[in-house]
């Protein structure tokens, strides 16, 4: 497998979990609409979705629930349309 040297000063991290304000409808929609730009601009897409449950709802949160949300699919398509699949990673170990 080919490896590239990456300098930490060149690494920027976008935390998707912090990107969409859930309780303010006036800000939520523009934030959702900006996902394509963010996801297509990164150098690598790393999806971390171990098998777990949401603390406040008890709903499952894992690979299957990640794949069932429309906006997560938008992120994947946005990323893949610019970069392909070679630097898209999915981690689902607990």
Low-confidence stretches: none
The pLDDT mean sits at: 84
Distance between the termini: 25 Å
Compute the number of helices. Answer: 4
Structural class: alpha+beta
Largest sheet: 2 strands, parallel
Strand content: 5-15%
Describe the structure.
The protein is of the alpha+beta class and 94 residues long. The protein is built from 4 helices and 4 strands; from the N terminus they run ααβββααβ. It has helices at residues 25-33, 35-41, 63-68, 70-83, and strands at residues 45-48, 52-53, 60-61, 88-91. The longest helix is centred in the last third of the chain and has 14 residues, at 70-83. It is globular.
Layout of SSEs?
Layout: H1 25-33, H2 35-41, E1 45-48, E2 52-53, E3 60-61, H3 63-68, H4 70-83, E4 88-91
Parallel strand pairs: 1-4
Antiparallel strand pairs: 2-3
Structural key phrases:
4 helices; 4 strands; 94 residues; two-stranded parallel ribbon
In short:
The chain has 94 residues and is α+β, with helices and mostly antiparallel strands. It has helices spanning 25-33, 35-41, 63-68, 70-83; strands at residues 45-48, 52-53, 60-61, 88-91. Helix content is 38%, strand content 13%.
